């Protein structure tokens, strides 16, 4: 099983971007890590900007380089705008949907729930985090796992969910309604730079 390990907060500070999408990583020290403190940032080249945007999205969704690139290739072969297709595929991953539905507080925790077999898709157990769900599919917590403390705490902490997902917190079940629109996703990164990075 391949996954990204390492300190999330330090990575967020290095990229100047909240990987957890909460902003809490940057509240205390909103500058890059290192012994010299808040030094002036060096101006990035075009390649550096493209690389940084790629790393922002890759770390946010928790993919390694091969998974990320393969997802991009798949998106580039689909009809429509490559950047939108790319983000649509990333949002359709099962671990991301579990996170978006509020069953886990982070994507890492959501990935673990899927890996450990706590998640059903259309009534069948799926333990592959990279499984691409299609609109209309129902994602739910397995009956034996519905009393897990971590899941209940995550649901209590989740106040709102995104519009492209419908969630029944009591039944611990959610439906993936449709592909997300770009305006519904994080506005702090630019997926067009990722397209330029891989097409250079």
TrEMBL record:
Annotated RNA-binding S4 domain residues: 92-156
GO BP term, example: ribosomal small subunit biogenesis
GO cellular component: small ribosomal subunit
Pfam families assigned to the protein according to its UniProt record, in alphabetical order: Ribosomal_S4, S4
Residues annotated as domain Small ribosomal subunit protein uS4 N-terminal: 3-91
Single GO term (MF): structural constituent of ribosome
Source superkingdom: Bacteria
Keywords, comma-separated and alphabetical: Ribonucleoprotein, Ribosomal protein, RNA-binding, rRNA-binding
Family statement: Belongs to the universal ribosomal protein uS4 family.
Task performed by this protein: One of the primary rRNA binding proteins, it binds directly to 16S rRNA where it nucleates assembly of the body of the 30S subunit.
PANTHER family: 30S 40S RIBOSOMAL PROTEIN, SMALL RIBOSOMAL SUBUNIT PROTEIN US4M
NCBIfam families referenced in this protein's UniProt entry, alphabetically: PRK05327.1 (NF003717), rpsD_bact (TIGR01017)
Subunit composition and interactions: Part of the 30S ribosomal subunit. Contacts protein S5. The interaction surface between S4 and S5 is involved in control of translational fidelity.
Official protein name in the record: Small ribosomal subunit protein uS4
